[in-house]
Amino acid sequence: MTNSRLTYREAVREALREALARxxxxxxxxxxxxxYGGAYACSLGLPAEFGDERVRDAPLxxxxxxxxxxxAALGGMRPxxxxxxxxxxxxxxxxxxxxAATLRHMSGGQFSVPIVIRxxxxxxxxxxxxxxxxxxxxxxxxxxIRVLAPATVADARRMLWPALEDPDPVIIMEHATLYNDExxxxxxxxxxxxxxKAATRRQGSDVTVIAHSACVKKALNAAEMLVGEGIDCEVxxxxxxxxxxxxxxxxxxxxxxxxxVVDEAxxxxxxxxxxxxxxxxxxxxxxxxxxxxxxGAEVPIPYPKHLEQAALPQPQSIAAAVRKAMxx
Amino acid sequence: xxxxxxxxxxxxxxxAVAPDIEGEPIDPNKSFRAQFEIDSIDFLNFVISLxxxxxxxxxxxxxxxxxxxxGAVAFLxxxxx
Amino acid sequence: xxxxxxxxxGADMEAATLVEWFKQPGDRVERGDIIALVETQKGAxxxxxxxxxxxxxxxxxxxRKVPVGTVLATILSPAKEPPSRPAATTTEAIEPKAPERRxxxxxxxALAAPPRLRITPAARRRSADLGISPxxxxxxxxxxxxxxxxxxxxxxxxxLERAPRSRGAGLDLDEMRKAIGAAxxxxxxxxxxxxxxxxxxxxxxxxxxxxxxxxxxxxxxxxYVAPLMRAVALAMxxxxxxxxxxxxxxxxxxxxxxxxLATALRGGGLIAPAIRDADSKSVDELMSAIADLVPRARxxxxxxxxxxxGTVTLSNLGEGNADSVFPLIYPPQVAxxxxxxxxxxxxxxxxxxxxxxxxxxxxxxDHRVSHGRHAAQFLTRLSxxxxxxxxx
Lengths: 328, 81, 392
Description:
The complex is a heterotrimer.
Chain A lengths: L2 E5 H15 L3 E5 L15 H5 L4 E3 L4 H13 L3 E6 L2 H4 L3 H8 L2 H4 L9 E6 L14 H5 L5 E3 L4 H6 L1 H6 L4 E6 L6 E5 L12 E4 L4 E5 L2 H14 L5 E5 L2 E3 L3 H11 L2 E8 L4 H13 L8 E5 L8 H6 L4 H11 L3
Parallel strand pairs in A: 2-3, 2-4, 4-5, 5-7, 6-7, 10-11, 10-13, 13-14
Antiparallel strand pairs in A: 1-8, 6-12, 9-11
Helix pairs in contact in A: 3-5, 10-14, 11-12
Chain B lengths: L2 H15 L14 H5 L3 H15 L14 H11 L2
Chain C lengths: L1 E4 L9 E7 L6 E2 L4 E7 L2 E6 L4 E6 L6 E3 L3 E6 L13 H5 L26 H10 L27 H4 L11 H18 L2 E9 L1 H13 L9 H14 L5 E4 L2 E4 L5 E3 L1 E2 L5 E2 L2 E2 L7 H17 L1 E3 H5 L3 E5 L18 E5 L3 E7 L2 E15 L5 H16 L5
Parallel strand pairs in C: 5-16, 12-17, 17-18
Antiparallel strand pairs in C: 1-8, 2-4, 2-7, 3-6, 4-5, 6-8, 9-20, 10-11, 12-15, 13-14, 18-20, 19-20
Helix pairs in contact in C: 6-7, 6-9
């Protein structure tokens, strides 16, 4: 078996290529996905391979093209809709929340909406407050949809196909700072992946650090920093933001007795709040410290680099929260 | 009294003055001092306890005979009516 | 109203666990009454009260480990404190609580709710699993009891706890060794020690003891340590620079000699409980005091005053084979007397060499308070006293 080295961006592209090749019902639609190759160049080269019908540029109207995607899904297609950033997806919230997520339930199960919506999220690229937010938690609030957050090249490569196989809407959150990450993948290995389970990225015994997306790397960095202090962190990559994999989280906290939740989003009403709450509900008697949260500063993400970085969880702030949980 | 009863009585006297060693097995031929760090105060209290339990008069010059369990049993067997 | 606080029972004590109350709210107490039992690194200590009055409220419940200085109970002065009038002290004035009630026997005063234990859920559950009352656990530096503060299950397995070598009922010898270690580090670091040794012919003492004991019923027999302690106490009276406490740069000589007796515990602990007023006790009284004190020390049943009152310590290695000892002073004391074994040696008596029972006595002193001359005065006086044991 040979390994191939590829970036997260290339992994997304390979996944799109595989999906387009495997299922004639699959098509990609979004702003600039055809002629420009996608805002993050994920679909570069695909129009030549699969034609303009299956890699379609959409007008600057998220509500319209997400709605069109939902209609196509209802009509038997398997659309992949790309939204340039999560901030813009707010324009399509009505379609996603009021249509995609509800139709199965409102039709008594007669209709399903097998759409996949991909969007770039997060800060760290100096794109300022209208292109940088982490609103994944909002989608995590909505019943009727599945929300995926691939944090690794492998997950970026593998999650799209099972998402397309899901008969209900799936949203894939791609953190914009991850596109240039590189990793080795088996070129012809097993591409299947379970899109219901979180992944333990580092085994540890003292504290469970729960993160997703770009914060997983930061949590792993923090864990390495803490090795020298004799603190052994377990790092869990949520991978699935809805429905949350409580089992993996709770089992880990039962083992370590301490939890730190890392979330780039704002603290108030966040996914981190939800996870913290579930830990308290399900593992209260196993806790040896209050659950700590490391979240983004509660400001619109600033443009200047130093302020932007200061507004985000960093390995240092994660390490500090771990020490606090350890009462050090 | 049989030797077994005497042995029991000696052990009880020793445990009474040094309750912190209560229940520990006693080597009959090894001195209490070597086994249990019994010092002169413990020993005096032990001798007093033996005297009170048996009525046997014990002089200072008898002390060397009472340093072990077997010695104390032999001493009491000889002195008891 | 008097706040009765957890006393410091030695330089090395930081906290102790209240085991039992002997006096209840409403009980009258007098100076010297034992009102509670606490457990320290040095075993269970009975705590005495130094004021007269009536127990008000007990603020600490049995089983709780609290730092030195924590208010354990309040003692009301019944004569002076009329009912239902707030006390006048400033601390009282700012406390937003109901006026002090006069309590009488049989009437339970309203107890303030004890502060809720700050213990993590996991620590609470583990301590329950192990059958340890959480109140007995001492919190970490942040005041919280976490898993780290609960002994791991393995250490508490009953089989191990009852292992035959773990001697010293009620005593944690490892903890005690730690405490002794801390006190000795402090002694060695802070006290500029000097030592003076003097060889003393103790033959008269042994001859006198033999004669005495031959005449005495067994219960009244004396051990060598009793006349020795009597002589040391009397000699100490002559040299006030060796007897007292040195604290915060000030030496306070003690009018009485409260003699700490270094007592080895089986299994390795060491403790030096004090016999009060050793200088005004007869040899017989000292003998009874020692016979009472040593077994209690080994059982970990001492009183608070016995832990703190010592003004000088006697360390007697008389039963071993060591010739002499150079002991470290137990702070805040300023001197320690170390006696080697009393062994037969050649000795110049007048013009002839005789075989005598000789003991090497070392006086360890604190140079901030005394000098070699004081030590020499003490040792000379001790030698004179031991030459005439019948006069002791």
